[in-house]
Amino acid sequence: MICRFSDLRCKEVISIKTGRRIGFVDDIEFDSCTAKICRIIVFGKSKLFGLLGREDDLIINWCDIEIIGEDTILVCCDIPSVGKKKGGFLQKLLN
After folding, report:
1. This prediction's pTM
2. What residue segments make up the domains of the chain, in order of their start?
3. 3-class secondary structure for the chain?
4. 43-58 burial by CB neighbour count: b if 16+ within 10 A, else e?
5. Which candidate, 36, 6, 38, 37, places its Cα nearest to that of 24?
6. Which CATH fold would you assign to the domain 5-94?
7. Mean model confidence pLDDT for the chain
């Protein structure tokens, strides 16, 4: 299967271990000597519409990719869990 980078960007990345949707491919890293792809990068989610930056980017090694399908890329790697903090912004102001 021949695939262009623009085709990869349209594919959703899903973790096999957790079944969680990670996001879409935003960038790639490749070795300029061998012209092989080393990693795919999924940008972190925006915080407050991007005004407060975004979460850390997720870098997935090429060897962690299990299957590249028509619509999805299945990966087998440890994804950092994003836990909800107790008490939001308003809760901190009220205390």
Report:
1. 0.72
2. 5-94
3. CCCCHHHHHCCEEEECCCCCEEEECCEEEEECCCCEEEEEEECCCECCCCCCCECCCEEEEHHHEEEECCCEEEECCCCCCCCCCCCCHHHHHHC
4. eeeeeeeeeeeeeeeb
5. 6
6. SH3 type barrels. (2.30.30)
7. 83
pLDDT at 83: 47
CA distance 7 to 26: 11
Per-residue pLDDT at 89: 57
As given in the structure block, the two tokens for residue 67 are 């299957």
Query: Which parts of the chain have pLDDT scores under 70?
Result: 1, 80-95
Q: Which residue has the tokens 């590249």?
A: 68
CA distance 66 to 44: 22
